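Q: Structure for this?
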Amino acid sequence: MAERAGVSRSAVSRTFTDGASVSEETRKKVLEAAEALGYHVNHLARQLRERSNIVCLIVSDVTTPVRAALLDSLTRRLQAAGKITVVLNTESDEASVGRALKLTLHYRADATVVLSGTPSSSLVQTALANGQQVILINRDDRLDGCENVGVDNAIAAREALFLLRRAGCERIGLLTSAASTPSLIARERHFFDAAEREGLSISLWKEGPTTYRSGYDAALKMFARSQAPDGVFCVTDLLALGFMDAARHAFGLRIPQDLCLVGFDNIEEAGWQSYQLTTFEQPLDRMARHVVDLLSLPEALGSSDRAAAVFEPVPIWRQSVRSHPA
Amino acid sequence: MAERAGVSRSAVSRTFTDGASVSEETRKKVLEAAEALGYHVNHLARQLRERSNIVCLIVSDVTTPVRAALLDSLTRRLQAAGKITVVLNTESDEASVGRALKLTLHYRADATVVLSGTPSSSLVQTALANGQQVILINRDDRLDGCENVGVDNAIAAREALFLLRRAGCERIGLLTSAASTPSLIARERHFFDAAEREGLSISLWKEGPTTYRSGYDAALKMFARSQAPDGVFCVTDLLALGFMDAARHAFGLRIPQDLCLVGFDNIEEAGWQSYQLTTFEQPLDRMARHVVDLLSLPEALGSSDRAAAVFEPVPIWRQSVRSHPA
DNA sequence: TTGAAAGCGGTACCAT
DNA sequence: ATGGTACCGCTTTCAA
């Protein structure tokens, strides 16, 4: 202990606590001694009395552009808010997420933010019981006691359908992945609902994981048969980009003349010259900010308000959809 | 404290310490009580006696594909090794990195891994003095006492030049960004060295940050004048992809007939059908594994060996370079 | 095998 | 404003 500054430990503590009363003189002595000894307050020892200030991020597939972007916003903002961000990189299955969530308990995290995968309800309950705040991002299945922040999939699905119809597409398809995450399922369901309301029939295609490769493979298979679609809503930009590449390079299809494509996420790559994908942007940074707000303002809003914040996706008009029928 | 299990705290501790001697009976009692009370060992309180098990990752530009990939490997492997991974998302300037590094001291991190930016030498020294291990990734400037892991930029630069020459390129260029990170500078320098050895003159272009957009803008400017290059080594895939898009779409250049391009990193996107970029892969996962090894085996290797591990980049042959002169 | 007690690095309360 | 002290949750000697 740095009390070779010739003062008590209390004085040291007060020096590093803002709003405590220390004379300028002792303060200086302490600061000097600290400098000499290379002393730094141990933030984790503080945690023995108060909150730990730790926020755990449970995430999988960090390399996926959307995920990386979300992780970026979140870590930035958490850090700005003075939180300690621990990231738990898991698989997205329930067991892995469960293990990760259990770890957060050992770290005495004040809060856990789940970016991917869904923990079992019982595990969440124990986290909650341990005084932890649990925030789920883009999980449409609400769990009791969790706070949710996500994007409005219904709007995007409806608008996507509108765009394809306005373009005069006659055989509309929906491409999704075999990985059924809540938000993907929601986009699918809302797209079908909207189509049904208009008496349209949609062809559904599910292919592998949510990757570029899956989109590519899907197109390879779809255009190898008769009755291929001329307008497709891909539930993810990554799928859309792969789909577009295969349609163009393997089948010589022109976008948007022969085929219209709508994506979702607005990842960087969607704006690249080779793609110019029309898509919907998730306001990730605003969502991240909201998460931090949720952590900071303890119970400012009524609990019903907190339970679910849904952000409106913003359409990004580029060139993969015609503005009129061909 | 869970001694309503009817045992001492010592017993509880021993139950959760492997290799401690507890009778099966007490063990059971403790476990039951823990279950009932929802008790979880506080890993951060442990740290008051021993090592904290915390590893800090200092990183900027998380959305950049290489960075995200590295972060992914690292977090995965650290977690597998039982480490607690705290990520500090900073800007890459020295001041930000410095602030981040200072934070790691407050968290009593056992080690800090710097993925981007370079901390000042003095700050590193205080971290070292506090018993922290500091590992720098892809910083060619060696700092005293740090361990380094990186990729061999010299080989890649030489090989890139070879590829372009074999393709018969006559006006060879080098595209880099204005952000002079050590590894970018190294690639540039080695490329020039190699060219000089062969008596070749290279045209150098620096453009903005290390992004797709910069590559795009660079091409726009370069092909707007006479004497444009017919073979370019882009120090980063992202630059190469932007460059390729502008060359193709704005100038109708055919790749590789009219223009040969070599990148570096082998990000996912480089393999996409629209690009098929010939590039060099950084063995990120092996590098990540090495980092974890460095953390685990305390002083297994001689300190000179540890000081710098350089991995050989592996060439990824695709279609952006001709195999013979046109 | 078990329990008592000391100490890890802090902060907060209570006197002074 | 300052110092003394108890306590946060856990591990580790040391005796029993």
